[in-house]
Amino acid sequence: MTKNNLTTSWGAPVGDNQNSMTAGSRGPTLIQDVHLLEKLAHFNRERIPERVVHAKGAGAHGYFEVTNDVTKYTKAAFLSEVGKRTPMFARFSTVAGEAGSADTVRDPRGFALKFYTEEGNYDLVGNNTPIFFIRDAIKFPDFIHTQKRHPQTHLKNPNAVWDFWSLSPESLHQVTYLMGDRGIPATLRHMHGFGSHTFKWTNAEGDGVWIKYHFKTEQGIKNLTQEVADKIAGENPDYHTEDLFNAIENGDFPAWKMYVQIMPLEDANTYRFDPFDVTKTWSQKDYPLIEVGRMVLDRNPENYFAEVEQATFSPGTLVPGVDVSPDKMLQGRLFAYHDAHRYRVGANHQALPINRARNEVKNYQRDGAMRFDDNGGSSVYYEPNSYGGPTESPENKQAAYPVSGVADSVAYDHNDHYTQPGDLYRLQSEEERERLVQTFVNAMKPVEKDEIKLRQIGHLYKADPEFGTRVAEGLGLQVPEEVK
C-alpha cells in the first residue's frame, strides 16, 4: 500500500507535524522550522475578506431546464430550445449581517444564480423581493452603512436605519414588504426569487423587449413569525444553511419555475411607473408572467470555502441576448460587483473552478495575483495583432438603445412612492395587516428621536391613512397634521 505522506505546500514530506523545532526541550522556537512558519502564515490568511453585503450565505449546484420556447424574444443560447439543460450554481444569503450572523433575521435574501452556458457564464444576481430600498447606486454605500454597526458602540443602530428610510421615501415599498410576513422566510427553499431590475432581451433579428425575472418556489411560500425566528436565531443560527444542505443530501431537491414579464420597448415611455425604477413593480395584469424554465438544485458543495465563499456573481456577467437597461441602480452594480470581487477574492477570481466558464476563455488579460493557469502561455498578448489572436464578433455586441438629455445629476422623473406600498398594504388580510403594523411598531420603538418616527409615520399615512394611523397609535404618537 502506498504511504499517504503529509507534505508541505511545496510538496516536501513532513517529518513531524506534532512538535515544533526548538532549542532543547524548553525552547525557544527556531525560525528555521519552515513547516511551522508556513502553517501559521497560511492559517493567518485562511479568511479572505468577507463580503461587504451578503456575507452569510449557503449555496448548491443544480441545473436549469427550458420548458417554453422564448426564442422570439432572446437569442441567448442556453434558452434556445425546450428541454435544454444548463448546469448552474446558486447562492442564497442575508444582506446586512456578518458571516457569523443568524440566518433567521428580518432581512432580504440574496438570490444569486450562475448559469454555465456554452457562450460563457451568465449571472442573475437578485433578491427574494421584486423591489429594493433605493433606486440610485450613489445612495448604496450610505444605505448599507445604516445596516451595519455604530462606529462607537459597535451595535446595530435603529436610529440610523429609520433616519435613512424616513428621509428616503422611495424605500417605503421595500420596507413594507420587509416588515410583512415574507420578511423572514421559513427556509431558503420556501421563498420566491427575483431579478428585481429591468433587463433587455434581444432576439436573433436584433429586436428587443424589456423583461423582469421571477422565480416561483415549487415548495410553496412559508414564513416565520418574529417570535419563532428569534427563538431559532438563538438555538440554531445556521438554520437555513442546515435546512438547504440536508434537503439536498436527502434527495429532496428544491426547485423553482422561472417566468418573465415582457414589456414592449415603446411602453417604457408611457407606463404609469418608470419601468427602470427598481423600487417599483410592473403589474402582472399589464404584463403577465410567461414561463421560461425550471431550476433544480440537486448537489451540495464538496467544500464550502472553495465553492460558496469564493463564488463571485455580478449582474455584469452577461451573455449575448441578455442586455442591461437604464436602471440607475443596475448601472452602478455593473461596476461595483466586479470591483468587489477583485478586492475580496483577487484579480483572477473568474479563473477559480467555481467561477470558471465551461467554454474556453480567450482574451488578453494577463498576470495579477494568484494566476494559477498557464497565464496565456507564449500566445500573443495584445490586440489588434497579426498573429491570429482572438478577435471581436460584432454580432454579439450589446443591443443599442437611444439616449438623450443634458449631462447632469438628476432624479427619476416619477416620484410616486406611495401608491404601490399602499396597494401592498390593502392587498393583505386583516391578520396580515395586524402583524405588519406590530412589526413596524416593534422595529421603530428603539428610535430615540420622535422626529424620525413621525417622518416615517407620515410616509405610511400617505401610502394608506389606516396604515399610518395604526402605526402611530402603536407608538403612542399622532399622525402629523401637515401630513393629513
From TrEMBL:
It comes from the Bacteria. InterPro entries: Catalase, Catalase_3, Catalase_AS, Catalase_clade1/3, Catalase_core, Catalase_haem_BS, Catalase_immune_responsive, Catalase_sf. It is an enzyme of class 1 (oxidoreductase). Its EC number is 1.11.1.6. Residues 1-27, 374-397 are annotated as: Disordered. It catalyses: 2 H2O2 = O2 + 2 H2O. One of its GO terms (cellular component) is cytoplasm. Keywords: Heme, Hydrogen peroxide, Iron, Metal-binding, Oxidoreductase, Peroxidase. One of its GO terms (biological process) is response to hydrogen peroxide. Gene3D superfamilies: Catalase core domain. This is Catalase. It comes from Halalkalibacter nanhaiisediminis.
